[in-house]
């Protein structure tokens, strides 16, 4: 009998806890609701999907807030949808349902795929309607997201891959910094010196296992990744990972990893976080990443940040790298007033003021030409001259077929495969073999995909 | 007896060691949630600035409480629905006689072999067609019933003495009345086990909500933590650990208070 | 729900006459049909729509190529399967899954048994240990992943710090294939322990005490008692636990997604993660469906094994 009473008592306590939790939640949700509802009552809701993290996300949320306060017709609701790779299928999969976004950010390499779904309204429509002056937006960035004279989407966060070094650390160990447009051997020298002179306390350099960096090595060496001139001349039918330039690049990294001058931080968000953390705490001397990391690398960093162009193979001039980042698209499954609201929001993001603020906060390049005159940007250049480097790198390159992006569907697959190859190579596998395996899988994928889509 | 006495200290030592292994990750998680992120990033596991600042930050800057609410709503609805539909289904298999009963039972049993993880592609297409995406409904409707629940409750209902049913027939109780007044109270321990099981199952869902929710308004806590983790480029470990602790504490409390029931129920489930 | 049932239930509420009593058996059966429909209808509908149909649909999709919005366009027969089974990447995924599943099941059972065996003896304060040992049952997959992600993280993580203190060579836990697999196995085992402990503990408690007493009188050593009394007595529960753990391990996704995302070098690219990656990242739904079918077949086989066993025990 006593045990029965005991168990009933426990049940009672359990019930009481459950009730208390429900009550707390109910109270909290009632309290937090009215404010949001009152604001959104009359406005047209514009759902905006983005994949921005860290300082970029904070700045983007500030833009959203400011835009909502600047007018009373639309209410933009921003939702973070994970990384670029996840977002593409989410966008395609939700199209035509209540869950879909009105305006979304999608990465550079998804351009061909998103366009071919037919799920979007080209921003050209609104540019024409408003007689919007597109010439104020950087031409190189615009061209990346245009097709046959039609602007498909609006370039937004645009970055350049660059190399970062800890200038303070180099000074401490009396190492000459790398030149502004370094070759592979320039980087090897600095990495070796750092590792040796710090007695391995500082790791010299890391190249993240990241398909984007792989693509940029090829671009900077002037070789095409896909045939049909990287897809600029037609639908690609095959890729080429096993060319001499790529093998040479991979060998450069592999040799240095073996020697211990380079370290491997792996792939994905964790790798990015970890290499950034190590760099900021002075345990890593150099790494390569998007210029969009500048914001993160300068806030609260005691050490002086150095930036160079993307390294190029020895014995040749750098061909220049493609822009990275993402653009903003308008879905065509929403009523015209919602689409209009989406466009108004895009215009707001592209003003000289917003773009200048964007570059200062994040390191993404300001795309509005008038942004260069804005005081915030001028101040940044004065304070940190190195932040001019990404823009200079962009202007230094002459656009050609190999450095203007790859127009190929299934580039996510390409990145998965090249990353796998990189991982194998980093772990000591045969370079030629790893690349050939990736190439074979990618070619099979392209053939299947072309067949499935009737190209 | 003598043997056990000399071995006692050793036994305690092993017990304490095991307890440390089990509790280690909890303790470390809780401890780091009290440290400033800057200190964690430096690799320090000790700091002079112990505070709940990370918790304040998590609650203020993230939707962690909303995630908890969402999970709570989803899990409670799923649990209630499974209790109802599984018990009704189990009742039918025990007390009703109809054509094809055994065949249907084996068919339902067979669904236990099919992992939901292998069916997400068509299921996604279905809920998309029904326009359920990004709503509580999408995380509840596919799980309104469960073959496991029906199976388990059928076992429990079969323990009900046939005399009870005969007596009920004599008294003129119809099936609904017998179900409600006799069957459910009789099998309450099994029902409690199913409740706990379905609640936890729903609470721990990860893949399905990740595929079908697109806003913080409906995102349950598992995917909320994923969201927090992937948004943090700076590795704000202090805040992430604080969020994890916020998530784990309610389930731990429920577990400790309801331990007795979980234990009994689970063993019943395991030995039946 | 209730409205549906009330009309059907009316006849039996009426006062019984002899006539009706005679017809009762027949009547009941007619009623049963409607009751069955009302009672089972919802379950059958849900299971049909969300369990049966999708399996058939997955089978169908696995025979096609899908276009860039995920619709099946070109019928290719079994080519997806052929491609998969001959692809070294998929073979690696199968192999990784096998290693993971075996590792998880073995260590979960061994440690779970150790915990249960230690906690079953009566000692002062043992209740505390029992509570602690069951604690990870309250840990959900993302919490476990976050706790362990921190422990394994380079330079700031616990293992790295201990290693530095002891001057051991540093292990890049989550970025080298072997250690990454060990890391996810450790995390999964830890997460599983609470549940496994509770079940095995319950089973140990039910082993009749006289058996031990008899063994002790005959001078059997504790290890002899364990292998010849305990293990045979709890073997049904051990079997149940191992199949549950095994099936759970085959379905692992959340921990992988949060800790390694299938990397490094696909070393932890388990089957479910591979399905997710091909479908929801690469948009390759046909191929992912074929992978789903293979996964389903494997899990179905193990579930069947469990059923066979449970059935036997139920009849005993």
TrEMBL record, chain C:
Pfam family, one: BPD_transp_1
All copies of domain ABC transmembrane type-1, residue ranges: 94-306
Keyword list, A-Z: Cell membrane, Membrane, Transmembrane, Transmembrane helix, Transport
Membrane topology: Multi-pass membrane protein
Regions that span the bilayer: 34-53, 98-120, 132-159, 179-204, 225-250, 285-305
Subcellular location, record wording: Cell membrane
Entry keyword annotation includes Ubl conjugation: no
Coiled-coil portions: none
Main location group: membrane
Segment forming the signal sequence: none
Family of this protein: Belongs to the binding-protein-dependent transport system permease family.
Name used for this protein in its record: Carbohydrate ABC transporter permease
């Amino acid at each position: 009998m006593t045990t029965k009473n005991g168990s009933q008592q426990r049940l009672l306590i359990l019930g009481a806890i459950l009730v208390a939790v429900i009550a707390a939640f109910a109270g909290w949700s009632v309290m937090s609701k009215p404010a949001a509802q009152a604001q959104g009552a009359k406005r047209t809701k514009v759902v905006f999907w983005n994949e921005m993290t860290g300082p970029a996300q904070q700045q983007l949320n500030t833009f959203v807030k400011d835009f909502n306060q600047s007018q009373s017709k639309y209410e933009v609701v921003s939702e973070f949808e994970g990384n670029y790779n996840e977002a593409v299928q989410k966008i395609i999969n939700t199209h035509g349902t209540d869950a879909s976004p009105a305006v979304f950010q999608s990465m550079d390499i998804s351009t061909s795929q998103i366009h071919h779904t037919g799920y979007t309204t080209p921003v050209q429509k609104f540019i024409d309607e408003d007689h919007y002056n597109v010439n104020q937006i950087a031409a190189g960035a615009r061209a990346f997201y245009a097709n046959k004279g039609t602007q498909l989407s609006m370039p937004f966060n645009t970055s350049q891959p660059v190399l970062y070094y800890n200038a303070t650390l180099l000074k401490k160990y009396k190492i000459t910094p790398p030149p502004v447009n370094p070759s592979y051997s320039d980087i090897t020298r600095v990495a070796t010196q750092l590792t040796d002179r710090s007695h391995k306390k500082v790791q010299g350099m890391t190249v993240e296992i990241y398909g984007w960096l792989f693509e940029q090595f090829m671009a900077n060496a002037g070789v095409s990744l896909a045939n049909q001139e990287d897809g600029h001349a037609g639908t690609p039918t095959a890729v080429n990972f096993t060319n001499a330039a790529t093998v040479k690049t991979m060998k450069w990294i592999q040799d240095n990893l073996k020697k211990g001058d380079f370290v491997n931080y792996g792939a994905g968000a964790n790798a990015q976080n970890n290499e950034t953390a190590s760099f900021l705490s002075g345990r890593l001397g150099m790494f390569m990443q998007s210029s969009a990391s500048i914001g993160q690398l300068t806030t609260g960093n005691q050490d002086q940040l150095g930036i160079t162009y993307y390294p190029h193979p020895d014995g040749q001039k750098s061909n220049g790298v493609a822009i990275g980042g993402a653009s903003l698209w308008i879905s065509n499954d929403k009523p015209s007033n919602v689409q209009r609201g989406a466009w108004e929001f895009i215009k707001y993001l592209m003003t000289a003021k917003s773009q200048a603020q964007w570059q200062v906060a994040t390191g993404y390049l300001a795309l509005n030409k008038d942004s260069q005159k804005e005081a915030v940007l001028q101040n940044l250049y004065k304070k940190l001259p190195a932040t001019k480097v990404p823009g200079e790198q962009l202007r230094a390159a002459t656009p050609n077929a190999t450095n203007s992006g790859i127009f190929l569907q299934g580039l996510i697959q390409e990145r998965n495969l090249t990353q796998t190859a990189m991982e194998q190579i980093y772990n000591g596998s045969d370079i030629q073999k790893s690349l050939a395996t990736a190439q074979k899988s990618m070619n099979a994928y392209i053939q299947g995909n072309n067949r499935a889509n009737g190209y | 007896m003598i043997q056990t006495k000399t071995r006692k200290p050793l036994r305690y030592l092993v017990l304490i060691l095991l307890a440390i292994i089990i509790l280690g990750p909890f303790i470390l998680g809780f401890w780091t949630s009290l440290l400033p992120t800057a200190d964690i990033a430096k690799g320090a596991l000790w700091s002079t600035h112990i505070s709940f600042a990370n918790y304040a930050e998590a609650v203020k800057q993230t939707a962690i409480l909303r995630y908890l609410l969402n999970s709570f709503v989803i899990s409670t609805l799923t649990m209630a629905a499974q209790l109802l539909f599984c018990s009704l289904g189990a009742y039918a298999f025990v007390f009703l006689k109809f054509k094809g009963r055994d065949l249907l039972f084996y068919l339902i049993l067979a669904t236990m072999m099919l992992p939901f993880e292998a069916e997400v592609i068509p299921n996604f297409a279905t809920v998309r067609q029904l326009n359920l995406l990004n709503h509580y409904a999408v995380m509840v409707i596919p799980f309104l019933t469960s073959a496991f629940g029906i199976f388990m409750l059928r076992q429990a209902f079969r323990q009900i003495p046939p005399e009870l049913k005969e007596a009920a027939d004599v008294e003129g109780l119809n099936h609904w009345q017998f179900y409600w007044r006799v069957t459910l109270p009789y099998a309450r321990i099994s029902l409690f086990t199913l409740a706990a099981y379905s609640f936890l199952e729903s609470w721990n869902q990860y893949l399905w909500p990740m595929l079908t929710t697109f806003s913080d308004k409906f995102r349950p806590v598992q995917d909320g933590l994923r969201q927090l983790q992937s948004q943090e480029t700076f590795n704000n470990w202090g805040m992430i650990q604080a969020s994890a602790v916020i998530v784990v504490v309610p389930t731990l409390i429920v577990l400790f208070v309801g331990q007795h029931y979980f234990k009994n129920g689970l063993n019943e489930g395991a030995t039946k | 729900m209730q409205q549906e049932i009330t009309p059907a239930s009316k006849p039996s509420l009426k006062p019984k006459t002899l006539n009706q009593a005679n017809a009762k058996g027949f009547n009941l059966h007619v009623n049963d049909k409607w009751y069955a429909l009302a009672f089972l209808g919802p379950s059958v509908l849900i299971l049909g729509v969300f369990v049966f149909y999708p399996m058939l649909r997955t089978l169908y999709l696995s025979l096609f190529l899908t276009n860039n919005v995920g619709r099946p366009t070109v019928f290719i027969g079994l080519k997806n399967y052929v491609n998969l089974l001959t692809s070294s990447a998929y073979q690696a995924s199968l192999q990784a899954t096998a290693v993971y599943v075996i590792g998880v099941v073995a260590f979960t059972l061994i440690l779970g048994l150790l915990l249960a065996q230690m906690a079953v003896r009566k000692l002062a304060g043992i209740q505390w240990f029992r509570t602690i040992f069951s604690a990870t049952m309250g840990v959900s997959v993302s919490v476990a992943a976050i706790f362990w992600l921190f422990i394994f993280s380079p330079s700031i993580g616990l293992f790295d710090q201990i290693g530095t203190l002891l001057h051991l060579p540093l292990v890049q836990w989550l970025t080298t294939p072997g250690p990454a697999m060990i890391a996810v196995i450790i995390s999964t085992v830890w997460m599983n322990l609470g549940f496994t402990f509770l079940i095995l503990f319950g089973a140990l408690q039910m082993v009749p005490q006289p058996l031990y007493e008899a063994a002790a009188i005959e001078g059997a050593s504790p290890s002899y008692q364990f292998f010849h009394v305990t293990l045979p007595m709890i073997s049904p529960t051990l079997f149940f636990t191992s199949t549950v753990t095994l099936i759970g391990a085959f379905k692992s996704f959340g921990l992988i997604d949060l800790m390694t995302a299938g990397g490094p070098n696909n070393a932890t690219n388990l089957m479910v993660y591979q399905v997710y990656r091909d479908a929801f990242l690469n948009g390759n739904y046909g191929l992912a469906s074929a992978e789903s079918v293979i996964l389903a077949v494997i899990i179905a086989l193990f579930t069947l094994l469990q059923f066979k066993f449970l059935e036997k025990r139920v009849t005993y």
